[in-house]
Prior knowledge:
Elements lengths: L3 H27 L6 E5 L42 H8 L16 H6 L12 H7 L7 H16 L1 H10 L1 E5 L2 H8 L3 H6 L3 H21 L4 E5 L8 H6 L10 H24 L4 E5 L2 H9 L8 E5 L25 E3 L7 H20 L1
Parallel strand pairs: 1-2, 2-3, 3-4, 5-6
Helix pairs in contact: 2-13, 5-6, 9-11
Amino acid sequence: MWTSKTITFILFTATTTLLTSSNATTNATTQPLFPAILIFGDSTVDTGNNNYPTNTFFRATHLPYGIDLPNHEANGRFSNGKLIPDILAARYNIKQLVPPFLQPNLSDQEIVTGVCFASAGAGYDDLTSLSTQAIPVSEQPKMFKSYIARLKSIVGDKKAMEIINNAVVVISAGTNDFILNYYTIPSRRLQYPHFSSYQDFILKRLDNLIGELYSLGCRNIVIAGLPPIGCLPIQMTAKFRNIFRFCLEQENKDSVVYNQKLQKQLSQIQASLTGTKILYANIYDPIYDMMQNPSKYGFKETKRGCCGTGFLETSFMCNALSPTCENHSEFLFFDSIHPSEATYNYIGDLLDPQIREWIAA
């Protein structure tokens, strides 16, 4: 017959085993997939760097931007809520929001888990950033070098490089080079009369950026292609006779060709840089599908933004005096250029499993 001591011991052992198993399961699900997230690019991923330079043209420091964030305050994100960097960081248990590197008084923990270097209005072409006073993509690695120096001061040289080697790096840019530069300003069209040659120029700039980030220790790099540029509300508005607001097919074709070239180039870059894993993020197809099949995603409006008329408003034109749509999640775009948080969440749903499979391969 079992004694009371024997029964107590068995119960204690069983409880300890269950707790250990439960803790192991919890740790497996809460362990970050990457130690840090590092972001480069334009307004699609700028979490607030443009708040700080005094001369930047594009800012989102006012409502209704940020209205659906946890604190319902504008903080520099060009949407009603979270951006892709925030969504991915949360999915991978890194952090809930990715701070901009230029934010004053960043904590050591924020530095260790990664920051954003992107700037709204930036492009791979420095001329694009010159017209918007954004921080050019080519200049963003300089901020990254400052970040590395601070990271090393916190965790030491060896641990810092381990974090950077294993961090996920996200690059999203290129759209501004076309809508704010080549399609709008004549100087580049005179220099590159064939559109294809300008695409090649942009891709060479991206090649240089990847090479520089590689030299600084980055190894896991996700690069977004172009969206269907001709479906951006502001581009539809630019064609004054487009009263039915159709997507501009030629601009969409330009995006498709660029993305095809980009995918081919990324394969070549990965083969040339030892130890690098590069993932092409296809954002064209999901956004185009949202345009064609809005009800599938719960959208009721895809041809204008939620802010103001939705035809032109962005940055300072989308402000606290602008009327906004009643249900933000029913609009594909929040302003005339930038997607709503709902759109970013759908894109995050698609990217998440792709990134998990890619990094595990």
